[in-house]
Amino acid sequence: MSIVRRPTDISSFSRAGPPLQGMASFVQNNFPSLAHRLPAGLILVMLSDKAGGQLSLAALSGVSEIPQPVTLPPTSTIFQASQSSATHLLTVEEGSANDDAIFAGLFAVHDLLVAPMHRDGNWLGAVLVGRAVSATPFAERDLAMAAAATDWLVTELLNMPEEQGVRAERVAAKKWRSHSRVIQLLESINDAYLAFDEHYVITYCNRQAEQLFQILRGDVLGQIVWDELAEFSTVFFERFQAAMRDGVSTAFEVYYAPSDAWIETQVYPDEDGLSAFFRDITQRRRTENLLRGRELHFRSLLDHMMDGVMTIDSNSIVQTFNPAAEHITGYLASEVVGHCVSRFACDMNKGACEYGLWHFLGREHFENVGKRHEIQVTRKDGSRFPAEVSVAQMQMGDEWSYVVTLRDISEKKAAEEELQAHRYHLEELVRVRTADLQIMRDQAEQANRAKSAFLANMSHELRTPLNAIIGYSDLLCEDARLLGAGELAADLQKINSSGHHLLKLINNVLDLSKIEAGKMEMKLARFDVGALVDDVSSTVGMLMKKNNNTLHVSYESELGEMVADSLWLRQLILNLLSNAAKFTRNGKVELKVWRTKLGDAATFYFSVEDTGIGMDSSQLDLLFQPFQQARHNTVTDNEGTGLGLTISRTLCRIMGGDIQVSSEKGRGSTFVIHLPAQVKPGDDWS
Fold it and tell me: Which of 58, 103, 227, 650 has the fewest CB within 10 Å, making it most exposed?
């Protein structure tokens, strides 16, 4: 069914004087009965105004009041057809500017059925039925119905008590005003409204019904609803029929597919047929479905939670009690829901559960909200267990309720007790072990003090005779050379070398002892690095010649100064050069020195690289261990204590630096010392 836009401008029609007031009131009052007798379409009643020589609109279906007088002049085709004695069918020319086209356009009609009204040879006007261009064309039976309905109306007009004209006019006017108020009310309500006669012919349709059912009242008024709206029959027929048959009002909700809407319907039977009110409740149904889904989801969550959950209203009445709560407490939901928590406090009290669950929940609502508590809970069978309880408050409208979560922490408590027992046991073990360690520490300190005392004594007792042996062996070697006793000189030289080796061994052992005791004293001084490097390299010439090695020294022209223990640095470089010369034959030893940045924030690097025997990874792991010579299994005639590199690394770390080494078996080794240009006293080097 197409929707035709109706023009709102009716100013094209000239204003006319008031129509025959009595007859117009009578027609308006009897309009519903007239509409029942006419074929479907928009119904108009036009009355002849002899004084003005025109037709005036007196009544229009679906409209309580004519907003402005609407008239047709004698020149219009409709006017002329209404004066004849026969019923006419007219088709209004579309797009024309004549009076007929403007009149038809005002009411969105294309075909007009014109039934003239005559009484006692007097022309009274005409009854018009209009249909839109998309509606079903008029048939012969429609013309007959219109003629019969018009005759009925004329007959009624003949019976109108003219001798009581004024009174009849007032009564009719009063009835029409009452009818108008009802129409205005029906047009102003938010519900859709349809009225039906006993044959389910639509006798009234308000604007909300037009919107809800997507119809135009001009198309449906006078139509049987089942013929006009097929889906309407499917949804409403049986219930409308029952209401009509039983004479009992009914209410129901249905889904109406053409409008994709859920409709709440209230049907009231009356003497004329049925009155039906319709309300679109689609949004409400969607909201209800959403809430229902959320409730099911909420209940599913409650049913599957491992913690017991219950809800309590502001009157302490239990509202929900999930399966976990049943399992934990031993109470069934049917025993708890709907009852006050104080009932269970009394049932279980017996002087033994003053701080039980039900007592806890029965306190004034609730000083415990938002807090987590541990309490003792008594089950239905009287057994007790530790539980963790929390209470949350929520508001639904004006009502407050409380969500209580209950967790059985028996296993947690047992684990805590076991953990506490283990902790006590561990503390006891630690106490005993600490006492043992204290004893061992005291013993170690005592042994260290004894070692220190021994070394202090041995330092003097060993060095004094050893220095004498070295000194006398030097003198005897000199005398043997002067006397030409070559064999004796060689033996004396061995004594002298062994003495020097033994002295070095004693010095290394004493240095290591001082380091372990933390008694090595670092003497910081500012010195020129280049001068120190030159001095050290000049003293190792004999070491290099012994194994036919060459020494290459390279450094920047302006190395600058550094603050460190110069004797320690000299010892470090000498030790690395000595080792390189010792483990290299017919090769090359290279000493490189460089610095990064300038000033006290700089770092000095001292690199000693040789082309000697090198080391594998297993030897590198032992390199800095005390009394270990990583390369002893390769060169058997290299004597040493195995303390040189250990002491060297320790001295480097005391001064805030370190030693790195890289080596390859058979290709040589590279040792790199890095030290800060400004060594700080008191660094943690242990």
Answer: 227
